[in-house]
Amino acid sequence: MATATVAILSPGEMGAGIARLLRAYNFRIITSNSGRSSYTTDRAAACHIEFVSSDVDLINQADIILSVVPPSESLPTARRVGYAYTYVARGNKPPLYFIDLNATSPGLAERIEEVFARPGIGGTGVRFVDGAILGGPPEFVQTPENPGGAWRKPRIVVSGPERLVGEAGQRLEEALGLKWVGDRVGQASGLKMCFASLTKGLNGLAIQSFTTAANLSLLPELKEEISAYFPPLLDFLEKSVPATPPKAYRCVREMEEIADTHSQTGFSRAVFSGIAEVYRGVAQDDELGKERFDRRSRGTTVEDFAECIREGLSRKEEENNRANAAAAGKEWMQQPPGRAVERMLVD
Hints:
Elements: E1 5-9, H1 13-24, E2 28-32, H2 38-46, E3 50-52, H3 55-61, E4 64-67, H4 74-85, E5 96-100, H5 106-115, E6 126-134, E7 139-141, E8 150-152, E9 155-159, H6 166-176, E10 179-182, H7 187-215, H8 219-229, H9 231-240, H10 248-263, H11 270-283, H12 302-334, H13 337-346
Parallel strand pairs: 1-2, 1-4, 2-3, 4-5, 5-6, 9-10
Antiparallel strand pairs: 6-9, 7-8
């Protein structure tokens, strides 16, 4: 059995987890470190991912490309691959698959498909598959009940007219547990958007609720009431909220993509645009914004998370008050003398 080669762009937390899983299924994993941080490069090396010198080399060697990047990078990544494809010489190799697994709206998924529909790209070998990941990164878990261990995988849904064919495609479907949900590009992405509305959307509401409760000195009481009403909800939130800081920056654009998706049905963008701002606040927080998946120090509990956000909002309010006071003072100093006297008389 020939070794199939999968290119992962890029090996962040999710991409690295997928790389480890696929290596366990005897896939060769490659990536290009073009434009990636040293942090991402080091993580890829730790997962035994091979680096290639350029995107052209990556395309020449890969059987399948998995795009696993922040939503804001999904279209640029596709364009980057599409541009590089015009310089490749794949010869008689089978068609190249590009599977987009990013958190994008159906509309954006269609725009990504269009990149590979141009003459000289899709017409000569790139087959586009719309996909989405529901859940966290793959993880090899060993328990007392199963000391040999087993892979815990996210659910990965895919859609579109192009089905995976050939040995490499069939092996990838088995390794990742791909589930086909439709024949149209955008259906897998749409399912992701509806699913994340109820998971990351709820998580964003919980961040706001927990922080406000802490500000009112009511966080323990809030947790008690949630536990009494629906214990699994508290269990979920006590895991999901502290896990937010390292990925908050990604969630900003994801919430905007969700807003786009719902707006196509006729709903207002306001709800998820507002939740996007909650995640933006986490990403820009002086403490929580520094957190990395393997370097955690703050916000590892709901209590500390809420305290960080509360302190950050308080600092921001103080800064705004000082700025407004300075601006008001400057405006008063620039007023003509007569206007100043008039203002004093009115006061």
